[in-house]
Amino acid sequence: MKNKIGFNFLFAIIAFIVGLALLSEFDFQTFTFRKTALGILYLLVFIVSLYLTFKKKSQSIEQ
Description:
mainly alpha, 63 residues, two-stranded antiparallel ribbon
């Protein structure tokens, strides 16, 4: 049985929205976040949502 990588559309939408917010929070001239705590929170949520988007599907035992 092959290991299939799943794609969760809901978490993909969440990752897209949080990614846009993360880009708007980041200052590219000084390479810092405008509000540090909010930027770190956005980054953590973005990474978790990407993980949950591409998580492997669990294998079910077929008899």
